[in-house]
Design goal:
Layout: H1 2-14, H2 26-43, E1 50-54, E2 67-71, H3 76-83, E3 93-97, E4 104-108, E5 116-117, H4 120-145, H5 152-160
Antiparallel strand pairs: 1-2, 3-4, 3-5
Helix pairs in contact: 2-3, 2-4, 2-5
């Protein structure tokens, strides 16, 4: 009887989504890290800041044609500056279980109150995956980031490149512990105050 059930169990565990406590792939974590960090850096730029792009050739008459002014935040120049050190952000990430979906996901340590794996080994693997992701998807990523999106991580990592499942990009619980986990002075006995 055990010989029959073991293959069935192994087959069920190999089905995506069957194991609700499964871990998001490193590639998905890297993609999420990249898009999230880029969007934070883009949001930090003054929207009025502009940059000239196009042809810088000067005609024989001394005119410069083909230049246009675009927003600096989503310019290729700015995005290229960010990409140089973006994977270093892995040192600020942790692996937590999303209490809504039951799946472990990589998130910035300030994104949630949830406790998780913040080991240097996990962060090193995430940083390596980030560098590998850039090697494989740099052009797609930079093209995607040139325009704003409502849910950029979901749009790019799930819908565009398909490295994340819909469960991987599901919202985290609000960034505050549930009320039953917090204490206030009324929870402490009077003789201990």
């Amino acid at each position: 009887m055990h010989l029959i059930t073991l293959p069935i169990i192994l087959l069920l565990l190999s089905i995506p989504g069957f194991n609700s406590a499964s871990v998001s792939s490193l590639e998905c974590g890297a993609c999420s890290l990249l898009v999230t960090h880029f969007e934070l850096k883009i949001a930090g730029v003054d929207p009025k800041k502009k940059i000239e792009v196009g042809s810088f050739r000067v005609s024989p008459t001394g005119e410069q044609k083909g230049l246009k002014e675009i927003g600096y935040a989503r310019s290729e120049s700015h995005l290229t500056e960010i990409i140089e050190h973006v994977c270093d952000e892995a040192k600020h990430y942790k692996l937590v279980v999303n209490t809504i979906t039951g799946k472990s996901v990589y998130v910035h340590k300030d994104a949630t109150y949830l406790k998780g794996d913040e080991s240097s080994k996990m962060r090193s693997r995430l940083q390596n995956a980030c560098n590998d992701f850039i090697d494989s998807h740099e052009d797609e990523l930079l093209t995607f980031l040139k325009t704003a999106h409502e849910e950029p991580v979901k749009q790019f990592c799930h819908l565009e490149v398909g490295v994340c499942s819909s469960v991987d990009v599901a919202a985290l619980p609000p960034n505050e512990p549930p009320q039953d986990e917090t204490m206030d002075l009324s929870d402490i006995p009077d003789d201990e105050l």
